[in-house]
Design brief:
Elements (H helix, E strand, L loop, with lengths): L11 H11 L9 E2 L5 E5 L9 H14 L4 E5 L3 H13 L2 E7 L4 H9 L3 E5 L4 H12 L2 E2 L5 H17 L5 E5 L4 H13 L4 E7 L4 H8 L7 H4 L14 H10 L2 E5 L1 H15 L5 H13 L8 E5 L8 H9 L3 H4 L19
Parallel strand pairs: 2-10, 3-4, 3-6, 4-5, 7-8, 7-10, 8-9
Antiparallel strand pairs: 1-2
Helix pairs in contact: 1-2, 1-6, 2-3, 2-6, 3-4, 6-7, 7-10, 11-12, 11-13
Amino acid sequence: MTLTQESTLVTAADVSAAAARIAPFLRATPLLPLPGERLWIKPENRQPTGSFKVRGAMNAVGVLAERGAGHVIAQSSGNHAQAVAYAAARRGLRATVVLPDTAPELKVAGARRLGADVVITPPALREDTCVALAERLGAALIRSDAFDVIAGHGGVGSDIADEMAGPVTILVPVCNGGLLAGVAVAAKSVNPAITVIGVEPELAADGAASFRSGRRTAWPVQETYRTSADGLRAPVLGALAWEHIRRYVDDMLTVSEEGIAAAAGLLWAELGERAEPSGAVTTAAYLAHGPSLPPGPVVAVLTGGNVGGSPLQAAGQQVGAPEALQHQDQDDQRDDGDGRSRDDQ
């Protein structure tokens, strides 16, 4: 993909327009300080459908509804599918979603519960199946790094930049790069001194490889599917997302599977926040790379909490609880501070 004009990229004005369009459908997410650290958590797991994806999907579906579309379709590892299903239901549109046969049942069931027609396919056939169905059904295809999706996601960056004065570092999970692109554009439009860093699992680091080489680099699906972070298994950055990333993003980091599990446990123990592996990678990056990050506050975007069971228990089983977890009562059921118990997420 070659872009010859800056106007083809998402702008701060696009992010603002998206924020106004989707505001009635979102929940405000605060910044939560991690005790004893310079780390703050942006809990997008509190959004409807349990992930940040509702921001971009709600904007894209809203734009299509305004243009008269009646049927939308998307392919996803799970969270984008649920978000599109939710957005379509709120706007009175029909939704079809294509998911891989490796998708967690929690996410498949969620998409169905929200009213979408669900199609299951092998991971390598997701895109082709989705495109073919879009043509056959006459449905509008919503890619997870589409222009309007990126603009909707940008609100995460605007929120952080508006709330945190001065230099701050924002850590963002990376799948196909739509969230990272939106956060970078939006945050830096408010405060150019903000540092934006993408985070990937070591086992699915195609984005980091692209960032280092300066070229979009694809990894084989059989490699990216090794990570437990099922929402970050895309084998290559989206073309439009990449154009934003190479202009606005400052760095890319990777984290281990053990680090991801430990971070999920820490978020559960210290803050009562349920984090799926894909959402825990940013906290894992802070724990692994904190001393090398720029001075000042760090914000980790917790992108999703669609995971069953106890993240604390899972972390302890996989890697052994870090010191921060050892003093926690695993049966503690205190509120999150907004009236929700841990099991309400």
